[in-house]
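Hello forum,

I keep getting stuck at the same step: I have a sequence, I want structure tokens, and every attempt I make locally crashes halfway through. Rather than fight my setup again tonight, could one of you with a working pipeline run this one for me? It's a single chain of 43 residues.
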Amino acid sequence: MIIRTKYLFALCLLSLFLLTACGQKGPLYLPAPNPESTDTGQK
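Reply #2:
Ran it on my machine without issues. Output:
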């Protein structure tokens, strides 16, 4: 039981870390395709 709880706890921490990492990288990588959408908007 203890091993399972530790495994689940580690899994939760890992998922949270991945979510935060994706959240931080998301805004940085999103602007790349944005210029194309803005160009179409200007046209």
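Residues 2-29 form the longest helix (28 residues). If your local run keeps crashing, start a new thread with the error log.
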